[in-house]
Amino acid sequence: MYPEIQLHIDGHWCKSASGQDLAVLNPATGERIGAVPHAGTADLERAAASAAKGFQRWSKVPAFERYKVMRKAADNLRARVDEIAAILTVEQGKPIAEAKMEVAAGADVIDWFAEEARRTYGRVIPPRAEGIYQLVIKEPVGPCAAFTPWNFPINQAVRKISAAIAAGCSVILKGPEETPGSCAGLVQAYLDAGLPPGVLQLVFGTPSEISEYLIPHPVIRKISFTGSTSVGKHLAMLAGQHMKRATMELGGHAPAIVFDDADIDVAVKILSGQKFRNAGQVCTSPTRFLVQEKAYDQFVSKFTAAASGIKVGDGMDPGTHMGPLAHERRLDAMERFVSDAVQNGAKVQTGGRRVGNKGYFFEPTVLTDVPLTARIMNEEPFGPLAPITRFKDFDEVVGEANRLPYGLAAFAYTRSARTAAAIGAAVESGMVSINHNGLALPEVPFGGVKDSGYGSEGGSEAIESYLNTKFVSQA
Ligand code: NAD
């Protein structure tokens, strides 16, 4: 049932010019389920030429017409939720219910940007002399290159391509090689809505070769990347060298702060749900659990019970709460994080090991007494590991929350409105969610500060980075 994967270049699905491809694996079994073609220079050059033509055409399509095509694409995606979600689970591992939610949420993202397309307002500035018109006009920035990862093959891609298409840009999407099928399903939903050739193209290949070809390419005017901070810094440097606009949605290490006065049951329920969703492979996942002294024992015992109650299994089984990690690299990374923490004195409250020897399953893991020198307290775990440490007071926890160079998401639980306001202000983070899980809706900003990147992938801010501001002064 896994689809044949092709590149989409200049209005056609096609193989790569070289015929080279790479295996796609099911992370629940480790078995090959398909293949993904690798685009080479000839394919990329064709895509760039087509993106230039696609931009000339699409940028002249009125916003109201762009809106109509996008609304149709959203409807197509909604109608295909079951089909695309099954592909997503088989290639990525997440439980089928999570996959369906991701695809359905993708349709909501398209709708949001479709509507935003009609609101890319400029303004009129009062002149200094009679008869002068000073106009501020928003224009699409040009052909874009978007690079998206495997953890949310729909969600990460749909935010970028929809903002670009809404603004009137064309876009070449380098999708995730590990999870190409669902991403291709998203592109097909757009194509079936009547998007002209060259407006949205899809390539796969060796990520570094594609980014090093497309970012400097004179046709490309803007890039957007989601992935690790180290790769993001490299791509931002390339973009800087070639004076290309860039949006960077990078790694995080989100503090989840639980104060003594918090509703512990609510905190455990929401934070454990967030922690183990998509097996922890989420850039906004809570990753440093900081719990105040009096609440510490109760939180650890309830959170550990919640973690050990999670049913790990094949995502296609509707009873599964947490699927496998997406690829073998993550499994090795989890084993290294846990052994390093234990060597540094951490206690494993539950989990800590690989499950079975087939597929890439890892136990939901809770670690306590983890020293700040352990790797897991400094590097993004990107997996089902929850290190819990205790703190004394507000200043101490703010110091720890802001200690790392990351600043993507932060979470806090307290019954005090005063503490809630104070922690919201004190944490250096692009997003803060207090007493509930309130991040990542299409209509709210989504992005980080510090080493977590720059730019927003949600809210009305998101489309702005695909627009140039032109000033026209007319007498
Ligand atoms: P990785 O750094 O090799 O790759 C991460 C993503 O970046 C992948 O999608 C990859 O295709 C892409 N990439 C890598 N090098 C690139 C290049 N030179 N040009 C363009 N794209 C490039 O890591 P990985 O093993 O796939 O994932 C592990 C780490 O990546 C995690 O620890 C996490 O920090 C980060 N990551 C973050 C997100 C996110 O949502 N922010 C998503 C996936 C991975």
Overview of this protein structure:
- With 475 residues, the protein is of the alpha/beta class.
- It has 2 domains: 268 residues, Aldehyde Dehydrogenase, Chain A, domain 1, CATH 3.40.605.10; 188 residues, Aldehyde Dehydrogenase, Chain A, domain 2.
- It is 39% helix and 21% strand.
- It contains 14 helices and 20 strands.
- The strands form 5 sheets. A 7-stranded mixed sheet has the order 14-15-16-13-12-17-18, sandwiched between helices. The chain has a 6-stranded mixed sheet with strand order 9-8-7-10-11-19, with helices on both faces.
- Helix 2 crosses helix 6, helix 3 packs antiparallel against helix 6 and helix 9 crosses helix 10.
- The longest helix is centred in the first third of the chain and has 22 residues.
- The model has no long low-confidence stretch (mean pLDDT 98).
- The structure holds nicotinamide-adenine-dinucleotide.
Q: Which small-molecule species are bound to the chains here?
A: nicotinamide-adenine-dinucleotide
Strand order across the biggest sheet?
Answer: 14-15-16-13-12-17-18
Principal-axes geometry comes out as globular
Q: Give the mean pLDDT.
A: 98
Helical content (DSSP H or I, runs of 4+): 25-40%
Secondary-structure-based class equals: alpha/beta
CATH class of the largest domain: Alpha Beta
| Count of individual beta strands | 20
